Amino acid sequence: MTQKDKLAKMRAIIDANMFGKPFNEEHLQIAGALCGFKFLSITRMPCPGYPNNTRHLIVQTECGIDGPFSWSKAIRGAKDKERYDDALRTAVRDDLATVFHDAEPKECAYCGETTHLTVDHVDPPFSVIAKEYLESSDVKLVTNKSCAGWHLADPEPWIKYHASRSTYQLLCRSCNSSKGVKRRLK
């Protein structure tokens, strides 16, 4: 099956499922074969940052992915930059969870919303911290044979570097998406 056929088949499966309802077992199996993941659950949900995206998926996989999932990226295959970015983000996921847990007040720094909050890098942004680190270090990626995805061979130096450069704020998904658009337009 060509990549184009896989994308079309995945679109058809997503479109056959209602918003907010978990995929049935048959659709889980087909989506898993198309994307290269063992899905425990998939739910089609409205996309908070991009309301016109009607094929936004929230997934849970055997290898620990629990949240939004780019099915088209999984089918097309990630580019090197995306692999490194994903590996760097995965390595600091626990630190960001701690930041979220410890944050007070639990509200968006821009609009005061108290739901759908995310941890945002204030200054410098994550992309700058990641670029600096990748330019100054010999970073090796490894893949876990039991699960799709790339990870840092040695995450500790990155975790320490990230912690030393990061400042955070809580933003709701909408404000976080808007902030990214404003940053790109400058």
**Strand percentage:** 15-25%
Radius of gyration: 18 Å
How many helix segments? 8
Reported for the largest beta sheet, the result is: 3 strands, antiparallel
Form type: globular
Low-confidence runs of at least 5 consecutive residues: none
- Helical percentage: 40-55%
End-to-end gap? 42 Å
What order do the strands of the largest sheet run in, or round the barrel if closed?
1-2-3
Q: What would the average pLDDT be, to the nearest integer? A: 87
**Number of beta strands:** 7
Question: What distinguishing features does this structure have?
Answer:
two-stranded antiparallel ribbon, alpha+beta, globular, 186 residues
Concise overview:
This protein is an alpha+beta fold and 186 residues long. It has helices at 3-15, 25-35, 71-76, 80-91, 93-102, 126-136, 156-165, 173-185; strands at residues 39-44, 57-61, 66-69, 117-121, 141-143, 150-152, 168-172.
Overview of this protein structure:
This protein is an alpha+beta fold and 186 residues long. Helices cover 46% and strands 17% of the residues. The protein has 8 helices and 7 strands; from the N terminus they run ααβββαααβαββαβα. It has helices at 3-15, 25-35, 71-76, 80-91, 93-102, 126-136, 156-165, 173-185; strands at 39-44, 57-61, 66-69, 117-121, 141-143, 150-152, 168-172. α1 (3-15) packs antiparallel against α2. The longest helix is centred in the first third of the chain and has 13 residues, at 3-15. The chain starts with a helix and ends with a helix. The mean pLDDT is 87.
